[in-house]
Amino acid sequence: MITSIKLKNWKSHRDTELAFGDGTNVLIGIMGSGKSSVMEGITYALFGTLPAVQSRRIKLEDLIANRPNPLDSAEVEVKFQSPDGDEFTVRRVIERGSGTTLSELRKASGELIEGPNASRVNEAIRSILDLDYDLFERAIYSEQNRLDYFLTLQRGKRMENIDELLGINKLEKARKSVGSIINRVTERASEREIAARNLKQDPSLQSLPTYHLELTRLEATRQETATRLQGLRAELESIRAQDQHFRKLEQELRTLENLKRGLEGETGALRRNIDEAKSRLRDKADAPLEKIREEIKEFESTYASNISSFNSLQSELTKASSGLQGLETKKAMLATSVGKLAAEVERKREAEKKLEGMEPRDLAEKAEKAQTELRRCGDELAGHRVRIHDLNDSVEELMTAGAACPVCDTPLDEGRKQELLVKRRNELKELAQKVEEAEVLSSKLGLQLRQAQELHRRALMLEKDAEGLQRLDSELADVHRQLACLESDIPKQREKVEKLAVDVAKARKEAEETNGKLANARQVLQNRTDLDARLLELNSKLEESSRSQEKIEKIRKTYDESKAEAIRRRVEELVGSQERLQAEFLGKEQLIAEKRRLVESIQDKLALIQRYEAEVRRLREAAQAMGTIQTALARTQTAMRRMFIEGVNLVMNDLWDGIYPYGDFSGIRLEVEEGERGDYVLQLRDRSGNWMPVDGVASGGERTDAALALRISFSMVLAPKLKWIVFDEPTHNLDSEGIQELAKVMRERLPEVVRQILLITHEERLEGAVSGYLYRFHRDKREDEPTKIERVTSPELYD
User: Fold this and answer.
1) What's the angle, vertex CA 743, arms to CA 737 and CA 747, rounded to 5?
2) What angle separates helix 360-400 from helix 414-466, to the nearest 10 degrees?
3) Of 763, 769, 695, 757, nearest to 735 (Cα)?
4) Cβ neighbours of residue 608 under 8 Å, at least 6 residues apart?
5) Is 288-526 the same fold as 2-153+715-798?
6) How far apart are CA 733 and CA 703, in angstroms?
7) What is the largest CA-CA distance in the chain?
């Protein structure tokens, strides 16, 4: 049972809270006032979805209020009781652009059971209520104008829909799947029977005993060949050992002979080298090595002394050359300085000569005086121009003046006016002449000023150029004295350098001669050492050659070339025989393998025939067993439909007299039509006792009553523990009397079998159905106002 709901920013609801109780709770109001939104909120809270969302007619975020301004989120909270009487609260939040962002289920105490995962909350509620969304939508919740939903389904769809509610559709799917499996199993059995029959017709199956005999004979001859081959291998191994011994002796003999020939060649070459070395050494060939080494030491000592003397002289020469080069460089630098100083002295003397008769101080005073005159002339010229401007203004004022003076406002006649004009014009003429004279004078004074300034500038430059003449004369005389000294020192230094160069050349020659003698002595020592080494090597080679000759003679005493050749031919004969026997053995092996493969192939065919026959027996037995299962599934479906129909018909007939106020039809039932395209059909019993289908014989009101009875019975049978049902606008096609009867049934009869009814309607006459809460819904849609709710009655009033 639903005990309360809270809606926040849910469609037209801003902040709505409703309580519900046992009996019939009615929500009444005009279309669009927000009644169905309450039921959508309950559905979303319990199952996390809505029929319109499931069918994609709307998106989840369309449930968030968007008038007059779109809001960011919506929230719904529903409190409910389980069939066991336990109380729970489920709360969900939707955010625009993000969908469901919070789902939680709590006990009445506030303890969290599940959250925030929406799917796990849905599963927890399904477990508590023993009700899922599909069963709720089809059996509990009658959407607006869909009370007769099951009657509007196409033929065949009604059974499919109700079977799905009952879970019978799963049995039907299983039955059809079993049928498909039976067909596949039967086909497989037939295929295996045909395959076994075709295999039995293979003629090779009759040859199996013959093949066994041939295999036995081939294996015996192969064993005989293997025995012969084994004996041959033993003899070949012995002969090969003798052959290897002779081959080893032969190889050793050839190696020693080659070695002896090589030694003979090397001793001959050594003798030639020794003769050549003695020829090069001549009288030194027999000289003692110690004497040669003493000569080398003497030459080394003399050469070291020569090099030391050379290096000392070379150092003095380098130092003297550097001194000479320094003197010459200094002389060149002084000569350059003399030229520069002489030119500078001459230039300053020229400046001093030009400066004679020019006094810079006098020239400065003259320029200053010219500047003063020019400034005075400019001031006078500016005064004349200001006066001319004033006189021009005065002339213009007089010319435009009336009977009064424009300056002093005294009376002014025409004669006086003309007199003043003539006077001012004469003054203007005089001033113009003075301005012209002043401009000529100003130009003349400006020229004089520039000339005076230029003379003063030149005098200052010449005065500066002439400075330091005495100092430069002194420097020039000093440089001349230094040059004179260098002219005396340079020849002496050059003579010293030339003498040292002769001494250095002499010392170099003596060192080179000593070095040549040292090199010759060292070469003699090397040649004498090489000669001794070759003599030792010659003796060693002669001894080795003698030992090789002794070994050769020893081997020749034991090596028999004719016997070795005979053994070699015997090895070749045995190898040929072995290869022939090996080929024969391999041929018999291949033939035996082929025969075995043929025998195995026939045995595989026989085993396959047995396996196919056994598989056929198993498949036939399985098909028979699955046929039994298929029959049991069909009988189970029939039994479940019969039990369901009996329960539905029992509830409908108990309600029918109260729901239907007329006497035209005395009973109602749900039946299953027989035949290939069997379907559920809702029937009414007429006055004569005949059962007639609702489709085609019932009026609109009678059809509505029948659909109402069917809906209630579905709810009672499919969710017997819940005892809860929802009607959204159930009065479609009902007349006034039918509406009154429906209100009476919902108020008096239904609460006896259904604990809670939620009725959503615009029909004010259904206010008489209230036994729980009654709410009136109001909303001005033109102004986009939110829903306003008035609670009219509550269960306490009936108590």
Assistant:
1) 145
2) 160
3) 763
4) 196, 199
5) no
6) 8
7) 183
Backbone phi and psi for residue 172, each to the nearest 5 degrees, phi listed first = -65, -40
For residue 574, the tally of other CB atoms under 10 A from its CB is: 18
Give the integer Cα–Cα distance in Å for 219 and 592. Answer: 7
Written as six digits, the tokens of 626 are: 């699955």
pLDDT digits (tens, 9 = 90+) for 499-549: 888 888 998 998 898 898 888 888 888 888 888 888 888 888 888 888 888
Close Cβ partners of 20 (under 8 Å, ≥ 6 residues apart): 1, 2, 3, 4, 5, 756, 758, 772, 773
Environment class of 231 (CB within 10 Å of its CB; exposed 0-12, middle 13-18, buried 19+): exposed
User: What does the alpha-carbon distance between residue 158 and residue 677 come to, in Å, rounded to a whole number?
Assistant: 11
Reply yes or no on whether the pLDDT at 567 is more than 90.
no
724, 2 in Cβ contact below 8 A?
Answer: yes
> If one looks up domain 2-153+715-798 in CATH, what number appears?
3.40.50.300
Q: Report domain extents, the chain.
A: 2-153+715-798, 177-202+611-629, 288-526
Q: Which residues contact 701 (CB under 8 A, 6 or more apart)?
A: 733, 734, 735, 738
Tell me how far apart the alpha carbons of residues 507 and 302 are, in angstroms, rounded to a whole number: 12
**E-only strand ranges, 47-185:** 73-81, 87-95, 99-107, 112-114, 141-142
State the Cα–Cα distance between residues 615 and 638, nearest whole angstrom: 34
Assign domain 288-526 to its CATH superfamily: Helix hairpin bin (1.10.287.510)
pLDDT tens readout for residues 671-689: 888 765 678 888 999 888 8
288-336, pLDDT tens digit by residue? 888 888 888 988 898 899 889 889 988 988 898 888 888 888 888 888 8
Cβ count within 10 A of residue 419: 11
- Rounded to whole angstroms, the Cα distance separating 416 from 599 reads 168
